[in-house]
C-alpha cells in the first residue's frame, strides 16, 4: 500500500509540474549527452594517438646541390656517400630506432608527383632538386628528440623533421574542442541542478498541506520525502535515456551511415560501438543519482520534516 501511494504521488507530482519536469528532462539530456560526447571524444583521441603514433616517422633530410647554395645548414656542400654511410651506421646503432628506410631523390620525386601532381610547382621540379632522406620508425614515438639531438647540424644533414609534431597540433585542437564541450556540459549541469532544486521546491510547496497532514499522523521523514526524490530521479532518468539515444543515433549517422565518415575518412581509426555502449550505463546511473541527491539536499532545507 505504501509503495502504491508513493508511486501515485510521483505521477501526481510530474503532472502538476509538467513544464518544469520537461525543462529538467531537456537540461539533463543535453548535459549528459555532452558528458558522454566528451568521454567518447577522449576515447577517439586516445585511439587516434595509438593508431597514428605507431605509424609516424622521423625524417632526416640530406643536403643536395640546391641546398648547398641556399641553405645555411648545407653550407659545406651536398651530402657525400661517406656521410650517408656514417649517418646510416649511427642510426642502426641507436636503441630507439626500430627501422630505417632510405628514400632517394628519384623516390622523393615520384612520391611528390603522386601527392601534388596537379600543383603548378610540380611541373617545374626535377629529381635532382629533391632531397634524399632517411625515414626512421622509432620504438617509442616520444623519443624524437634523441634523433634530433644526434643529427641536427651534422654535415650533410639539412633538417630533422618529426611527423609527430604535426599530429600533436591536431590532437591539441581535438583536446581543446573536448575541453570546450566539457565547459558547456558543466554549465548545462548547473542549469539542470538548479531546475531540479526549483522543481522540487515548487512541488513541495504545492503539496504542503498533504505533507503537513502526513507529519501529524506520524509519517517518517523518508516516507514524506520519497515521492519528491523519486519524481526528480524519474525525470532525470528520462533525460538520461534521451542522452543515451542521442549518442547512439549520433554514432550511427555520423560514423556508420548518413555522413559515413568511416568510409570517407579511411585514414582515421574511429572508435567502435563497444566504446559507446560502455558509456551508457554510466550516463544512466548519473541521470538517476544526480537528480535524486539534488532533491534530497533541497528537501532538507526547504521541507521541514
Describe, in plain words, how this protein is organized in 3D:
It comes from Streptomyces ziwulingensis. InterPro entries: ABC3_permease_C, FtsX, FtsX_actino, FtsX_ECD. Helices cover 69% and strands 8% of the residues. By secondary structure, the protein is an alpha+beta fold.
Helices and strands: which structural class?
alpha+beta
How many β-strand runs? Answer: 4
Describe the main β-sheet briefly.
4 strands, antiparallel
Give the overall shape, derived from the CA principal axes: elongated
Low-confidence stretches: none
Q: With helices defined by DSSP (H or I, 4 residues minimum), what is the helix count? A: 12
- The strand line-up of the biggest sheet is 2-3-1-4
The helix-strand sequence is HHEHHEHEHEHHHHHH
Summarize the amount of helix as a percent range. Answer: 55-70%
Strand content: 5-15%
> Mean pLDDT, rounded to whole units?
80
- C-alpha Rg (nearest Å): 31 Å
What is the rounded distance between the termini? 22 Å
Amino acid at each position: 500500500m505504501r509503495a502504491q501511494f508513493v508511486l501515485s504521488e510521483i505521477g501526481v507530482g510530474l503532472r502538476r509540474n509538467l513544464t518544469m519536469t520537461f525543462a529538467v528532462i531537456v537540461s539533463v539530456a543535453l548535459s549528459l549527452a555532452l558528458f558522454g560526447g566528451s568521454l567518447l571524444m577522449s576515447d577517439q583521441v586516445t585511439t587516434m594517438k595509438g593508431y597514428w603514433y605507431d605509424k609516424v616517422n622521423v625524417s632526416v633530410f640530406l643536403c643536395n646541390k640546391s641546398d648547398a647554395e641556399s641553405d645555411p645548414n648545407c653550407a659545406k656542400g651536398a651530402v657525400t656517400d661517406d656521410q650517408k654511410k656514417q649517418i646510416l651506421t649511427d642510426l642502426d646503432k641507436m636503441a630507439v630506432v626500430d627501422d630505417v628506410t632510405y628514400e632517394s631523390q628519384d623516390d622523393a620525386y615520384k612520391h611528390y608527383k603522386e601527392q601534388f601532381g596537379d600543383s603548378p610547382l610540380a611541373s617545374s621540379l626535377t629529381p635532382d632538386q629533391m632531397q634524399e632522406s632517411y625515414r626512421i620508425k622509432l620504438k617509442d614515438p616520444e623519443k624524437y628528440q634523441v634523433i634530433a639531438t644526434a643529427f641536427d647540424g651534422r654535415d650533410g644533414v639539412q633538417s630533422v623533421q618529426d611527423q609527430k609534431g604535426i599530429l600533436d597540433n591536431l590532437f591539441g585542437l581535438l583536446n581543446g574542442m573536448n575541453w570546450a564541450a566539457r565547459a558547456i556540459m558543466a554549465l548545462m549541469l548547473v542549469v539542470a541542478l538548479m531546475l531540479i532544486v526549483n522543481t522540487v521546491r515548487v512541488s513541495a510547496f504545492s503539496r504542503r498541506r498533504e505533507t503537513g497532514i502526513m507529519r501529524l499522523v506520524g509519517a517518517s521523514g523518508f516516507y514524506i520525502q520519497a515521492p519528491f526524490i523519486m519524481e526528480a530521479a524519474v525525470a532525470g532518468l528520462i533525460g538520461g535515456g534521451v542522452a543515451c539515444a542521442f549518442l547512439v543515433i549520433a554514432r550511427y549517422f555520423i560514423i556508420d551511415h548518413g555522413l559515413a565518415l568511416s568510409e570517407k575518412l579511411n585514414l582515421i581509426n574511429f572508435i567502435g560501438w563497444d566504446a559507446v555502449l560502455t558509456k551508457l550505463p554510466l550516463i544512466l546511473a548519473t541521470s538517476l543519482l544526480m537528480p535524486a541527491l539534488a532533491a534530497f539536499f533541497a528537501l532538507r532545507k526547504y521541507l521541514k520534516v
